[in-house]
Write a structure and sequence with these properties.
Strands 3-2-1-4-5-6-7 form a 7-stranded parallel beta sheet, with helices on both faces. A 6-stranded parallel beta sheet has the order 10-9-8-11-12-13, with helices on both faces. The chain folds into 2 domains: 189 residues, Rossmann fold; 170 residues, 3-Layer(aba) Sandwich (Rossmann fold). The protein is built from 15 helices and 13 strands. By secondary structure, the protein is α/β, with parallel strands linked by helices.
């Protein structure tokens, strides 16, 4: 099927966006694929929402399908579907090669934010990539990155790793470090009881809210929880989420392992309808587990610490998270199971944790990175 024979079919499509032509839209966001986990990366959504506050009425999201592809974006952000139905290969190719570049030109878009390096377009509009923390380890070749005007990462450590691996100049990499889910704070006792009554049948629970999941990580977590259940013989629960999103949405194959898990009834895959739901889940937890070991900003651990919830983290995070964090060997379920059991048995450890955190609060300043990103986008 030739693209030239199909382009006229989209003339009415372009007419739908006459309002775009009459409105200044300096910055747009796009990803061609709703099925990859870039769309479900909570940090990407937080950056997009934060930019809306910096660029009110100036941010436009191009979604490849009519289906909502950007969960939990602020109502003020305009979302435009590039297709009325599920897009097949030829339709996606047509959108990328012809339709979107034309719309960007007509809307006078100043800069384009991408969620995947594979989405780089042939256009004069400067393009910026919101890079997932794990992308640097999955990427073996960086030619597409050389075409970008800038790359946004979640930590200085990740920027340094990018420079080393890709050869990119440091000033092309923008660090937005310390961005937490809005409203994160300690949860009052009444809120804790209310959440547990609603979600965990009134039971205490551990939570793991990591953004990126692997089969190995989930198996280690489940085996550790099995050890804990066998040792203490109670109805405690394990809540798993992706910073408030359902983890199976982006990592469905990984979570198929739960189908045959012995304690499946004590595992809750949690999805909130907004930031308040995730805040409640984290604040009501007895302790939070994280497996994150990459160079990205340890957002989940910091959100738990801000919520006055003990954190159990890999030994490699010792220096980054400081005092009051309980450490385990990320490759050993026995190590994690022992930490779960120790916290369960020793309430004094939790009190000690709270005392340490009160004198050593988490200090985060993401605004500087967001301000730099806004400046670069508008100057592009």
């Amino acid at each position: 099927m030739q693209l030239n024979t199909k382009i006229n079919k989209f003339s009415l499509f372009e007419q739908k966006f006459h309002l775009i032509q009459d409105t200044v839209v300096p910055v747009a966001v796009y990803s061609r694929n709703l099925k990859n986990d870039h769309f479900f990366d909570p940090n990407n959504i937080l950056i997009i929402n934060a930019l809306q506050q910096y660029l009110p009425q100036q941010l436009l999201v191009f979604s490849p399908e009519k289906t909502a592809g950007f969960p939990e974006v602020y109502p003020g952000i305009r979302v435009v579907a590039l297709s009325e139905k599920k897009a097949g290969f030829w339709r996606r190719l047509l959108v990328k090669k012809r339709i979107l570049p034309r719309l960007l030109k007509k809307s006078r878009t100043r800069a384009l934010l991408l969620l995947d390096a594979k989405d780089v377009l042939r256009t004069r509009v400067p393009q910026f990539l919101l890079m997932k923390d794990t992308a640097i380890h999955a990427q073996t070749d960086f030619p597409a990155l050389q075409k970008l005007a800038g790359i946004v990462v979640s930590s200085g450590a990740l920027r340094d790793a990018m420079v080393k691996r890709s050869g990119l100049a440091p000033d092309r990499i923008i660090v937005v470090e310390g961005l937490l889910t809005p409203g994160i704070k300690p949860l009052e006792a009444a809120g804790q009881f209310a959440f547990k009554d609603r979600v965990t049948e009134g039971r205490e629970f551990f939570i793991c809210a990591d953004v990126h999941w692997s089969g190995e990580q989930l198996r280690t977590l489940l085996k550790a929880f099995s050890r804990f259940k066998k040792m203490q013989q109670s109805g405690w629960k394990l809540v798993i989420t992706q910073r408030g999103h359902h983890p199976g949405s982006a990592f469905g194959a990984v979570f198929n392992a739960l189908d045959t898990y012995k304690y499946r009834e004590d595992v809750v895959l949690f999805e909130s309808s907004g930031a308040a739901g995730y805040t409640a889940a984290l604040g009501a937890a007895y302790a939070a587990v994280t497996f994150q070991q990459d160079e990205g900003f340890p957002a989940v651990a910091c959100e738990a610490l801000v919520s006055d919830v003990p954190v159990i983290a890999p030994v490699s995070q010792r220096e980054r998270l400081g005092t009051g964090v309980f450490l385990f060997d990320a490759a050993d379920e026995a190590s994690l199971g022992s930490q779960l059991m120790e916290l369960y048995k020793n309430e004094a450890l939790r009190r000690q944790f709270l005392q340490q955190r009160s004198g050593n609060p988490v200090k985060l300043v993401p605004g500087a990175g967001l301000e730099l990103l806004k400046k670069r986008l508008l100057q592009a």
